[in-house]
Amino acid sequence: MDRDNGPHARVPEQRAPQQRPADGAALRFSVLGPVRAWRSDEALPSGSPQQRALLTALLLRGGRTATASELIDAIWGEDPPSQALAAVRTYASRLRKILDPQTLVSDAGGYAIRTTHDALDLTVAQELAAEAEKARASSDRALARALLTEALDLWDGEALASVPGPYAENQRTRLEEWRLQLTETRLDLDLEVGCHAEAVSELTALTAAHPLRERLRELLMVALYRSGRQAEALAVYADTRRLLADELGVDPRPELAQLQQRILQADEELARPTDEPAPAPAPVRPAQLPATVPDFTGRASFVRELGDRLASAEGTVMAVSALAGIGGVGKTTLAVHVAHQARQHFPDGQLYVDLQGAGARAAETETVLGAFLRALGTADSAIPDSLDERAALYRSTLDGRRILILLDNAHDAAQIRPLLPGTAGCAALVTSRVRMVDLAGAHLVDLDVMSPEEALQLFTRIVGEERIDSERDAALDVVAACGFLPLAIRIAASRLAARRTWTVSVLAAKLADERRRLDELQAGDLAVKATFELGYGQLEPAQAHAFRLLGLADGPDISLAAAAALLNLQVHAAEDLLEALVDTSLLESAAPGRYRYHDLVRLYARSCAERDEQQPGERELALSRLLDFYLATVARVSTMEKPGDTLVNHLTPTSYAGLEFSSRRDAQDWLYAEAGTLLACARQSAGGQTLRHAVDLLWTAIELAESGANSKEYEATVAAVFRAAELAGDAKSEGRALITLANVHHVSGRFDLADHECRRVLHLSAVAQDPLAACWASNLLGIVALYENRHADGEEHLTRAIAHFRELEDRPGEAAALCNLSRVHLAMGRTDSAVSLAQQGTQMYDEMDHALKGANGRYALGLALTQSGRLEAAADSLKQAHQVFKDSRQRLWEGMALFRLAEVDIAAQRPAQAAANSELALTILRGIGGEWRRGNVLTVLGRALSGIGQTGRARVCWHEALAIFEAHGSPEAADVRGLLNPATVA
């Protein structure tokens, strides 16, 4: 075993002066793969194997001359033919004609190739490796990884492939060793930057290919340990120790044994890079505070009080100050100003988040924790799924650091508790509309309105002294009309500053209407409503109408096209109104073409709609238009994604046209970009006359359930809409909502629930005379029966589905049921029928140019071909399916296709490739697909690991799979028990 793991070993080189070909066309050569030559983009013939061997010997000399005897030795070794010298001259002559006389030159009885320094891929790789070494030495690991990846990408298979001769063989071995060293270095960098989960798959395959290379084993142990797979990491050591003893009669090197001990001791230092440079990379020192306002005014006692608390945080465990007050009182402004002044006390960074506590749906704590962990340098792959695990990792990450956390606009104490630091040195500033008396140990600050002096000072700073000095009394009238509320003062002053023709008296006169100030005198949100009335009252009628209606829509923001639909306007007219609202600060421009309300402004806009919309039903019509827009647009997306699908013909009719897309990719991008607002609209519309539209919207956008990114939100929305349909007693809506809910259960591995809901769909669809829902219910019942090993039931359900789809002339549905029936027949041992059915379904999809569903067909065909023993055809079908799933962002099926490819690899006795595919499947299926599917992947991964001699890791995987199957009562548990039986494994 080679115990030299130096990652930066260099391939020697020495170059002579370079020249360009006479015709100016650049020559390029490759040796990191087949030996080839190009002139510009034209491939040149390299001749016989011996001629390529001569070209190789010259290229690897870096421009130095090789004598004829050296070339003979390189090509034939100790047994050259009798005419070897003549053959060398012939090969050289042929190469000179192919290249040109200035490139291959005769020199001192030998030959040399003279070309530019970057003409040879090996030279480029050497330079990239050298630059990577420099980047790593200067702590720029991201650049080092990129350079090494670029260098390794230059390889095209085995170096000097098929080149004969002892010289080529020696160089091939040397280049392969160098390639492995570069790969080890790049993997080491992967671990240093936290990409441990992604590295496991590659390291598993490499350790299978190079079982005696201890450095790879060491990296694999670290990657597994940092991925939370401690048992597997220890199993790798046990497998390595046994292998070394059996093959070489030696023990693992001391570094490997020490690593095992550190893993046994759960060494926290091992959980992060051992050579972390100082200072830390920029992402580890967040600076997220929003900009402080340049005209901050007053609040001197609060600034001093809070500043003193933050300055003393170093010796205090969890120093928390919570600011409470009505909306618009200046909590955020004060907190940001104090936080900026205290930055010097928190050299390790500042975190900030708007928790959206005043809105209908506050920010989820686990989502905020994920964002904070990323800001603190944690890789996405290292962020756990559950709230408790994220909170624990967050506190561990903050330990030993001095970081200020600003939690703005909190809903309640329960929302922020997991976000609070747990050690001395850190501090938190919290703002909220509620007083957090139940937040233990917090320093509570009640923020009131400004004093008259402070209010006038703020007004003057914004408007300008020259306009206030001559109208001081009018200015006092203005700030008094604002109730001395900072947000109201800022809005009023900004409007005045933007209107140079107005005097202060004009503004004061506009604010003199007591009807607008009465609410200001009350507690709570009414004071905020009076403040916003100042801006709202200045809007033109069309602007005010838009302001009121836009506030009706739920969701984080709204696109320009959706807003135009809601307002029943052309896009350009809607844009003019929205931009005018942005100018008044009543609306925010979240991004080009997207708009959002501040939480309190949205509430105010809705109150205005209740008060001021005179036309009966106008609010309901606006939301109905928005729902129509989403349903019509999603239907267009479905038409592009699933051509020929008859679902769009069975949807509730819409009166508003949706968007058109030029490509399938544009349609996909729109769907996933709008997922949050689309689902919010469906949930909001689940009632009355729009219920069926909301249900159909969710059914048509069912791909969101399988994407992983939107699965949880989709499930919650479907459940809410189903409850509304159930309360309404609408059998058709209830059935369609149930079929989407059943699909969610199927995707999540809750097959018993999916089966139950589908049986209810059959009854409801009969009552509502909705045959399409019945078809898809029968189809899904067949799939569930397959998973539960009720094959006769599955065949019955799917045969019925096929017949009903044919009655409806729904060819995509028929193709889906055929492919699913193929899988049932496969489970029943009817392999030939399974192949035939899958081929029929796939052909139907291809005839309709149905790429995504065609991938489902190829998935089923791949399974059937695997069982029939046609493994290469199976692998090809599954690879095609995998690529489409990946391009379509269908994470569930992307992961399942990799799992099935791993099964093919096992059958084809390619355990190393099976292990790599299984590892990738586990990574992709994280958080989607359910535990039952995870158990199946773990079972196959265990088989693959056993096949490459890593039996310890294999048993860890099988034990985990067994626990999953036993918890679910799955029959697969018996198979896994057999694998864990030593006699069976042997």
Describe the protein's architecture and organization.
There is one protein chain. With 986 residues, the protein is mostly helical. 60% of the residues lie in helices and 6% in strands. The protein is built from 44 helices and 14 strands. A 5-stranded parallel beta sheet has the order 8-9-10-7-11, sandwiched between helices. Strand 5 and strand 6 form a beta hairpin. Helix 33 runs antiparallel to helix 34. The chain is globular. 49% of the residues are buried. The N terminus is likely disordered.
Question: In terms of structural class, how would the helical and strand content be classed?
Answer: mainly alpha
Content of β-strand: 5-15%
Shape: globular
Helical element count?
44
The stretches of 5 or more residues where confidence is low (pLDDT under 50) are: 1-24, 274-283, 514-528
**Mind summarizing the main beta sheet?**
5 strands, parallel
Tell me the total number of β-strands.
14
Radius of gyration, rounded? 35 Å
Sheet with most strands: strand arrangement: 8-9-10-7-11
**Range of helix content:** 55-70%
| Rounded average pLDDT | 84
